[in-house]
Amino acid sequence: MKIQEADAKKLLLAQGLPVPPWEVARSPAEARAAASRLLHGAGHARQVVIKAQVLVGGRGKAGGVRLAATDDEAEHVADDILGMSIKGIAVRKVLVAPAADIVRELYLAAVLDRAARRILLMGSAEGGVEIEQVAATNPDAIVRIHADPLLGLRDWQARELAFRLGLNAHLKATVGIAKGLVRTMLANDADLVEINPLAIVREGAGAGEERLVCLDAKITLDDSALFRHQDHEALRDPDEEAPADAEARRHDISFIHLDGTIGCMVNGAGLAMTTMDLVKRAGGEPANFLDIGGGAKAERVAAAMRLILAEPRVEAILVNIFGGITRGDEVALGLIEARKQQSRDVPMVVRIVGTNAAEAARLLEEAHFETAASLDEAAEKAVAAARAQGQAA
Ligand code: GDP
Ligand code: MN
């Protein structure tokens, strides 16, 4: 689960990381009031920065990060940004903060390195830009350091990171931030904690002190660990969750979106992987897979079918169910029910084996469903059906 910058910054603050103050505004008037407090309050900011709160990167490039020097300007800029859509997502909130006087922008992130089974810190002296771009054009510019699962990130490792990023003048701060990122990962079961830019900023008037601060924050939480953090549920942004994903979650279906044309309904993650492999081997590409889990009832099956059909890419559907706790006849009833409500005509191939498979076969035959005995056959039929459908269109 991705969370908004403002929420990510709260989690960073909770670990003692240096984050400049901010407010969130939902209207130009609220943004004006927030800017007014920052410009005329105790902090006497010379300018404010107004940033779109949407769960995509590259807001700056898209025009979603702008500065304002007066209340009027802040209201006007907020009005502009609140009317934008960035990468297809409507902006509903903005963050308002005192504008930083940036000396240098760097990149620092903690990610879960699954292959190494460790938290990996990645730093780059080239901040502000997208790290993928640095990785592609100048991979040596990325410093990588693994934290030990038992000992954590040790001070000498954090100091080495600081030296390699040219942060010698900010040694203590860098060590504090690097260790803080690892703590943020662990405390929240995060997959990613990314600070881009981590910035050296000038504080106070004229040639004031320089300080290292987290100007932007991006955190992705591990969905499978959300149950351990009751308070994280409140960070889910309903404005930005696609309706289909919310619907899938309500029905306890895991819904993975892919790029192909064949919708796959399965039960169990292992079967999902196998099904995708076989679809690919038969020359097709999965459009998605929906794992209806163990013991699914007809109602969940029907919901899964509605979700698959709602994806315009889908040109054929492959249902592959291994009945264990799940009863084949329940699945068949769900499919029959779903087809009654079906909004568009998409060919479907069904393979159900295991518990109550014979009853399922009888029900499906009566309802004139296309069935397959083996998984290979099912995948081939689905791929052929998708091709025919694609050519007809
Ligand atoms: P992103 O584009 O979505 O990653 O949004 P960021 O918060 O990272 O902002 C993008 C860029 O805007 C940064 O790399 C900075 O160059 C600039 N920026 C962000 N905040 C400030 C600020 O407070 N002051 C100044 N001068 N520039 C800022
Ligand atoms: Mn950024």
Structural summary, described in words:
- With 393 residues, the protein is α+β, with helices and mostly antiparallel strands.
- The protein has three domains: 1-20 and 101-237, D-amino Acid Aminotransferase, Chain A, domain 1 (2-Layer Sandwich), CATH 3.30.470; 21-99, ATP-grasp fold, A domain (Dna Ligase, domain 1, 2-Layer Sandwich); 243-392, Succinyl-CoA synthetase domains (Rossmann fold).
- The protein is 37% helix and 26% strand.
- The strands form four sheets. Strands 1, 8, 9, 10, 11, 12 and 13 form a seven-stranded antiparallel sheet that branches. It has a six-stranded mixed sheet with strand order 14-16-15-17-18-19, sandwiched between helices.
- Strand 15 (262-266), helix 8 (269-281) and strand 16 (286-291) form a beta-alpha-beta unit.
- The longest helix is centred in the middle third of the chain and has 18 residues, at 171-188.
- It is elongated.
- The model has no long low-confidence stretch (mean pLDDT 92).
- Guanosine-5'-diphosphate (GDP) is lined by residues 49, 51, 57-60, 65, 99-100, 102, 105, 128, 196-197, 215-216.
Helix content: 25-40%
Q: Summarize the main sheet.
A: 7 strands, antiparallel
Low-confidence stretches: none
Bound molecules: guanosine-5'-diphosphate, manganese (II) ion
Going by CATH, the homologous superfamily of the largest domain would be ATP-grasp fold, B domain
The strand count comes to 19
Structural classification: alpha+beta
Rounded Rg: 26 Å
